[in-house]
C-alpha cells in the first residue's frame, strides 16, 4: 500500500479520479496482496472493518494517554490551561481530535484533501467514529453535519473532504448525516497567517442555515478535517445555535500539533 501510494501520487499529480482508479488497478496486478494498513504500510489489514491494522488502531486510540490533550477543544500538546479555547463561548461544547497534525497523520489527511484520495476517508472516518464512541459522546448526539465548503471551492475541488469523513463516521456511529441544511455563504480568505482574533472575525457569518427543520432541538456533531484555532467550527456552532439547534459538539481528524496550520 505504501509503495502504491507513493507511486500513485507521483504519477497521478493533477490527474482525474478515473486515471487514479485505472492506475490503482494496474498496480494491484504488479504488487498483489496490497491490502496493507495505510498507517504503517507494513501489516495486513484484518477484521471485518478492514481499514487499519490492530496495532495502529490501538496506537491511534491511545494517543491521548501519552500526549497532553485539551478536554475542551481537543488540541494535542495542550498546556494544562489551554489558551486555544479560552475565548470559546458555550455554543460549541466540546471538540474531539483523533490525532495531532503531524507525521503520517498529516500526510494521510493531505492525500485525502489535496489529492482527492477518497478511499482514505474509510480508515480516517472509521477512527473519527471510534474516537466519538470512546469519548462517551455517542449517546448525546442526534445528527452529524460536515463543515460545508463554499460552492465555488466545492466546484473547484470537486468534493468536500469533510463530507467524505462525516459520511464514514455517520456509518460507523449509525447516526443520520445532514449535508444540506447548512451552507457556506461567504468565501473567506485563507486562514493561514491570521492570528486567533483575525480568524474568528474572518469566519463569523460565513455560514447560513437554509432550512432549520432538521436541526431544531437536535444535538449536533460537526465534522471537519483539520482544526487549528477552531474558528470555523465556532462559526458553524453560532449559526446552528441561532437556528435553534440543541447542544453542539465537534470531531476533527487533526487537532493542533507541532506544525499546526489550516
Ligand atoms: Zn498499521
Ligand atoms: Zn483547549
UniProtKB/TrEMBL annotation:
Organism: Thermanaerosceptrum fracticalcis
Pfam families from the UniProt entry: Pribosyltran
Family: Belongs to the ComF/GntX family.
PANTHER family: DNA UTILIZATION PROTEIN YHGH
Protein name: Phosphoribosyltransferase domain-containing protein
Domain (Phosphoribosyltransferase): residue spans on this chain: 165-255
Superkingdom classification of source: Bacteria
InterPro entries assigned: ComF/GntX_DNA_util-trans, PRTase-like, PRTase_dom
